[in-house]
Amino acid sequence: MRSTKLFSLNIITLALLSTATGANAADFGVQQANISKQKIAKYQCKRCVVTEGHTGTVGGTIGRVEANDDHAINKLTTSTDDVAAGVNADMAYQQGVYKADIQAHQLGMDNGFINIKVGNTDRYQLDVDYQSITTNQYSNAQTNLWHNDGTLTPSEHSRVLDLNLQRERGSIGFEYDFAQLTGLGLSSFARYDREDKTGNRSASLVNPSPVNFAEPVDETTDKFSAGVVLDGENWLSELSYYGSRYENNIGDLSLPYSYDVYSATPDNQAHQVSLSGQYRFASSVVSGRVVSGRMIQDEDLIQMSGNPLQNWDGQVDTFNSNLTASTRVNNRLRLGASYDYSKRDNRSSVYDFAQYEYNSMSGAFVQNTAMDIDRQTAKANASYRIASGYRLQAGYTYKQVDRNYGEREETNESELWSKLNVRAIDKLTLDFGLGYSERGGSDYQADELTSDETQSLMRKYHLADRNRSEVNARASYAPLEWLTVDVSTYYANDDYDTTVIGLTQSTDYGYDANVHLQVAAPLSVYAFAGQQWIDSDQSGDQSAVWHTEIRDEFINLGLGATYTGLLEDKLTLGVDYLFANSESNTGVDPSSSAAYGAYYSYEHSVSLYGQYMISPQMALKLEYQYERYFDTDSAMVTADTDSGLITLGELNHNYNAHQLMLTFSYKLQ
């Protein structure tokens, strides 16, 4: 949208202008040049040539995937049903101030999009988007519950179906610049988006034993935004509105012998009004934003004994504000600060509900509580140029969160961080970072609403006291014109030193490395590697003291090469390889038969392609892609594992997938 573009451009402009030393600084800008004696009528920019007419490329893709699991669509973007065909385009047309752009990729396939922009470069622009997205969770899920008009009907015969989702997104937007009409920096924008989502996803309920089933999905989400932007020489402002509406076209689900056993996601809507602005002084910039919103949910409730409500008139009002300032003290020192405040005011209705104890009414009544949350964040930072090529940055952040009717009504967190940037060494850039934070707050106690169920020593990790230490480093080295190496590493430790039951410690560390080689003029090679480890410790005492260690590990490896210039510069060959592996192990001490098992997955992906230039305008590309995917989750069990548990089957993946794609492209004159 224009508002976003204006904001980005002004921020860049202000950053550049902030390098001035003040009113006494010399101005060598082009606008200060004395051209009173120059004859500029015949001058023209010989390089500023705007190509009129049609430019770009257009073409099509046809291909097929062979796989016994539709999970391959998440990587290969096309299903295994039949031959798929799509349209590709990257075209532009310009005639004077009128311009049109069209971009499309595999339009007509399971995953494809098209974007069209038309307008007058000086006044207005209209853009239209369409996108289709298909994702697969599991294939060949088995269920004995058949969905029909809101009822899950048990059957002796298992039904096999795919748990996948199809999304169709469409949007239209319009921008208009009133500058030529009004002489002011006034512009406006409006946009409407709609998404329809259908398919099936896994869900579960207890009635009275656990039941896993395929939940039907038929949802619609509408979004609308509009606003006006007004800017001047040193300032920028924007007034905008954003609204959304969610509609679930499938209601509550029932069993033949029990009604409304599964509550559907309720319809809801949200609205926001935002006012933002920015002002530039000689060497300082101040910006701010105020947002007021409301979320509404007013759907019928499932009726049950003791519930006096027919529908829920839920309403939450939100308020957000931000103030940011930065200034350039001198040519070495820059200072910045910001303050954020947000409030979530739950104005939903409060009623008296009868309380039950051991399936009988106790005679006592209690009200549902409307929980509110207030958040405040203050930040300060400084950047100091020690010497040419050396810059030191440091900052402090304070966060405070207030909650009512919670285990901990107040939490506060303080963080200190620093960075060192080195650019003085030839062909080498270095970045180092350190950070430390502490979180504390008010007394931790069980919520009065759940004190009978909550262990007094248990701490929720997002509310518990925590000390965090982190360090990171990055280096980029280009010793030769044809060689570039980038390496980064990081380490973070979270210590929940006062927690007896719950998460007590967590560490997150890893590295990333990238190498690019331009071996010769026609040959380019790249490689990358990355690993991450997350280790967590947790303690508990349900019936017996126990300790859990969770070890998560991830690895990504890649290698690729491109060779050009074959067959008189008409043929280009390329290869890409990717390996990804993730593993999660949970150990319980003392061990027992109820201990968690492991989750493990890996993927090999290979892509081979060749592109041949039939003529200067026409090209033909043939691509083969192979995927080997495997995962196993110990939580997945077959339908006959436990007679008291109804499952969707063992939904792990283990498949080989092959895709062959042929693409033709034509370059417009």
Automatic annotation (TrEMBL):
<feature type="signal peptide">
    <location>
        <begin position="1"/>
        <end position="25"/>
    </location>
</feature>
<dbReference type="InterPro" id="IPR020016">
    <property type="entry name" value="Decahaem-assoc_OM_MtrB/PioB"/>
</dbReference>
<protein>
    <submittedName>
        <fullName>MtrB/PioB family decaheme-associated outer membrane protein</fullName>
    </submittedName>
</protein>
<dbReference type="Pfam" id="PF11854">
    <property type="entry name" value="MtrB_PioB"/>
</dbReference>
<keyword id="KW-0732">Signal</keyword>
